[in-house]
Amino acid sequence: MPITIRVRRNGPYVIESDEVTVVDWNGVAYPVSRRPIALCRCGASSTKPFCDGTHARTGFAAAEAAVPGSEDKPAP
Ligand code: FES
Fold first, then answer.
1. What pTM, to 2 d.p., does this model score?
2. Which of 4, 8, 68, 76 is found 20 to 30 A from 16 (Cα to Cα)?
């Protein structure tokens, strides 16, 4: 089954699969307590590589849509 990584507007990368493991540079898996997995895209999380919601407080802005001109479409 294909895995979808959803880029949240002004937020994290959300991996929509229960079959994903996030490993560090040594190949050791991070414990995951919540699904779907949200990976920090803003660089400000205190729980990297995971998103901790800090992006909302820092005003992180990155709303590039896959199709130019469709950036006003709300995320489901
Ligand atoms: S994207 Fe959420 S804290 Fe960085």
1. 0.85
2. 68
